[in-house]
Amino acid sequence: QVQLVESGGGLVQAGGSLRLSCAASGDTICISAMGWYRQAPGKERELVAAITSGGSTYYADSVKGRFTISRDNAKNTVYLQMNSLKPEDTAVYYCNAPPVRLCGHSYDYWGQGTQVTVSS
């Protein structure tokens, strides 16, 4: 099993910044790419950003130029630096890691979620 533990959420004013962290532990050989999803009230969960073990990144159009995903492979930790935050960024943010084939299953690993609230 893999455990993902997020930290760094909170309340910030529009235009401010927050940095989320997600530390992976357990059978970390089961994961490679990692990412961040978010879910706002009444909306579906959406992929915000992802990063491969080699450092290739993906960003949703809504966060390009404002958010930066990075990782420290030695610490099994992924980060999401969020700048120029907007009220519409308010959501619960979840760390995600899909399993690699050798894990023998297809369900993703998820963190418990961390609340990000941006006031206007």
What does this structure look like?
This protein has 120 residues and is an all-beta fold. The protein is 0% helix and 51% strand. Strands 2, 4, 5, 6, 9, 10 and 11 form a 7-stranded mixed beta sheet that branches. Strands 1-3-8-7 form a 4-stranded antiparallel beta sheet, with no helix packed on it. A hairpin with a 4-residue loop joins strand 7 (67-72) and strand 8.
The biggest sheet, with number of strands, parallel, antiparallel or mixed sense and barrel status, is: 7 strands, mixed
Task: Report the sheet-strand fraction.
Answer: over 45%
Q: Specify the structural class.
A: mainly beta
Order of helices and strands: EEEEEEEEEEE
Total of helices: 0
**Assembly annotation:** single chain
Task: Please give the share of residues in helix.
Answer: under 10%
**Overall spatial form:** globular
Return Rg in Å.
Answer: 14 Å
Average of the residue pLDDT scores? 96
Uncertain runs are none
- How far apart the termini lie comes to 40 Å
Q: What's the number of extended β-strand segments?
A: 11
What's this model, at a glance?
The chain has 120 residues and is an all-beta fold. It has no helices and eleven strands.
What would the keywords be for this entry?
single chain, 120 residues, mainly beta, 7-stranded mixed sheet, 4-stranded antiparallel sheet, 11 strands
Secondary structure: elements and pairs:
Elements lengths: L1 E6 L2 E4 L4 E9 L7 E6 L6 E6 L5 E3 L7 E6 L4 E6 L8 E7 L11 E2 L3 E6 L1
Parallel strand pairs: 2-11
Antiparallel strand pairs: 1-3, 3-8, 4-5, 4-9, 5-6, 7-8, 9-10, 9-11
